[in-house]
Amino acid sequence: MIWKILLFLIISFVSIAGIAFPIVENPIYWYQFPLIPGLEENAKIIFFHVPTAWITVIAFLMSTIYSIKYLRKKNLLDDSKAYTAAQLGMVFCILATVTGAVWSKFAWGAFWSWDPRQTSIFALMLIYGAYFALRSAIEQEEKRAALSAVYSIIAFVTVPFFIFIMPRIMKGLHPGSADDVSSGPVVDFHMNANMLLIFYLSLAGFSLLYYWMWQIGYKSHWIKEKFNKQLI
Amino acid sequence: MQSYWLYKKDLASEIRTRYAINSLAMFILVTISVILFSIGSETISDYLSGGLFWVVIFFTAMSGLSRAFVSEEERGTALTLQLIASPTTVFSGKLLFNIILVFSMNIVVAFLYNILFESFVIKSHLLFYTGFILGNIGIAISSTIIASIIAKAGSKGTLYPVLSFPILLPLILILIELTKMSMDGTKFEEGIVELSVLLSYNVIMISASYLLFDFIWKD
Amino acid sequence: MSNFSLNVVGLTKIFGRRLIFKNINLSFNAHEIVGISGPNGSGKSTLVKILAGLLSPTQGNVEHLFNGKKVEMENLHNHVGFVSPYLVLYDEFSAQENIHFFSKIRGINLDQEKLDSLFTKFGLYERKNDLLKTYSSGMKQRVKFIFSMIHKPVIVILDEPTENLDVEGKEKVYEIISELGKQCLILIASNEESDLAICSRIINLKEYKN
Fold first, then answer.
1. Which residues of A touch C17 (CB under 8 A)?
2. Which of A153-157, B40-44, B69-73, B76-80 is predicted least confidently?
3. What are the structural domains of chain C?
4. Is B113 helix (H, G, I), strand (E, B) or coil?
């Protein structure tokens, strides 16, 4: 119970601080953020966009890990876990895409411009979509679990190409891209201590939130499956 | 050697039934003519024709490459294959068959493309052909493993491109990039990064496929 | 001749929500002809598929011991002969081509003399070069028998072996089974009285329901 209240406080604080704290050129007070050239006011999206994108990747990773576990042990509970992680991953993937697109409208002038990062997150969304399409096409539980586990592992091995390699060989606009000189690696150099603190708090808060949702999700999925078994 | 004979069996069967070859050939014709019709008398940019080249190849691949596994599953001969060969042999044989199919199909596409599209001019041949060969192998590997999943999933046609596209996307993006580079006349040495990405994609996909095929193949 | 044995320990198979059979413990030796009976839907085919390594069990182990050594799953297919109604051969090839490709894919040299004698025995010699799609179902069943024993397996699994066969075909099959039974283990999954009559012992799957 305690950690749920804590989580509520963290998320509330991050939401208020992230939106309301002003950005000034030379921060003096603890509640002021520094100005990052090239990002300006838009920089605030970092508190919400980066954690959602981070969780998209974490959820995908967890889904893959539980898929591997399923293939080794053939325990359907692992399949429930992998499936729930993928479901949440899809939700956060959409959130990351939308927040990214909103930011991109103000920073680059268009909602979508096929930047390598946008391409990658789009591909991730396609992978999740394909995963759900595959699952809904198979009736038999074990077969569904095994085939979708195999698919998510195969999809997972292509992810490094999107996340690490594509942005480096294709020209990109995204902060942190290979040819981005103005706002460089945002996290390392341009954020001051309080901004970093809120950023990491937000990251932790969102991760906790995800973990909580995931636990409820897989348990309810598991109970539903069990219930179905008893009915027939 | 055993997988080579499985490939021979598939080839002999293909020559008798001509199922994949016919649909592939028709698909190449249809996609290329649709592109030609939609272009009309306008001239399109070099880069666009280079990109469309891989679009044709992707959709052609999606029309015929699932045949290798789907036909076995549809006719019920998958069980027979399980009885005479180990999973590794089956995958190697099917992969070999698909590689040959992809190469013959893409050589036809490249040939037609060269004749029909004036803006499709390759300046650095070595770069393009190396990318073309590596890319074809990559397409064959990914589409073979996805075909085996599709065959077992029981819903054949529509899911295949849906499942394959995200897996093939990095490959196709790099291939489009390489095609642009070779149209610009980039030196072979400057394309090494892209080529090594292609190579690592192939290596990663083939090892993942061999590791996972057992789980797909056995019910 | 060959020293082969098959051990089944605690075998359980559950399909989705349905228990097929539970806790089967058996052991078989070479030179045995064993019948597996049970009403329709009792899991005869599932059991023989698991024994042939085509399906994995939900729980339990199947051990194929060949001269005291465990046969690897990877190589098991070359020691097993299998006949069943759901086994399908390639329609676009002739019987001869089917067997030829199968042997090559197994990595074994085809013994053409033995094959011809088998064709003659089953009355298919004249038609061995016709495409399989022109065959009747009984003739296809005979080809399946040839397919199941041309690679000299140590265990032959026959699922409803005499389905689609005429009286003459059945007699030939029984003759061959008793001949084969001297060299290897034969499992017959069937409900036909006459099939079970040639078995030295019979396992009833009804006993493994719960």
1. 228-229, 232
2. B40-44
3. 4-208 (3.40.50.300)
4. helix
